Amino acid sequence: FCPFPLDSSWDAAYERELQTFEDIGDAGEIWFGEESMVRIIRWLEKQKIPLDSSVLDIGTGNGVLLIELAKSGYTDLTGIDYSPSAIQLSEKVREKEGMSNIKFKVEDFLAPSAELSGFDICIDKGTFDAISLNPDNAVGKRKQYVRSLCSVLKPEGFFLVTSCNWTKEELLNEFREGFEILEELPTPKFCFGGRIGNSVTALVFQRK
């Protein structure tokens, strides 16, 4: 599942998912599938990241990643999305799962509010992709994304990004100012015309 550009169609998509959840209790699309969540949680566990570390999910959508992190024992979880319908949906999913300790907020990550700061870990599954596809000044928006990330993530904090639009080399270039690469996480491989590649890139950066 690859994101499309950030515009009003997002809100419409989440309004539909909200209606579906109210009708049949289905939380909707998990971006990049279940394995993308497992990959993130495994990395956090392998690094022995403390369970009380503050985690920000950028573009949380239906909030399912944070639900899974809460089930794994993480206690300081915040999800933001610029779509009010997405936040409504994530709050309903949180209610159904009984996870009252997850905070959800309507926020535009390109203009974050002052209280959005000091996070130990930031996670992005597809939001940077969606911002990158914006036909209106995509380059400027990508630079603003990096500035916002620097303002919300603590020095030496971790940034885990999953992308289907950018290669490892391209992401290294996008985040070269203020971040260093720690690790590339394994993602599903595909074979096309005798060449093996990855349809999804997942990287861990550390803020300098």
Task: Walk me through this protein's architecture.
Keywords: Cytoplasm, Methyltransferase, Nucleus, S-adenosyl-L-methionine, Transferase. Pfam families: Methyltransf_31. One of its GO terms (cellular component) is cytoplasm. The protein has 208 residues and is an alpha/beta fold. The chain has one domain: Rossmann fold, CATH 3.40.50.150. It is 38% helix and 27% strand. It has seven helices and nine strands; from the N terminus they run H-H-E-H-E-H-E-E-H-H-E-H-E-E-E-E. It has helices spanning 8-24, 34-46, 64-71, 84-97, 127-132, 138-152, 168-174, and strands at residues 54-58, 76-81, 102-106, 119-125, 153-163, 179-185, 189-192, 195-198, 201-207. The protein has a seven-stranded mixed β-sheet with strand order 3-2-1-4-5-9-6, sandwiched between helices. A two-stranded antiparallel ribbon has the order 7-8. Helix 4 (84-97) links the parallel strand 2 (76-81) and strand 3 (102-106).
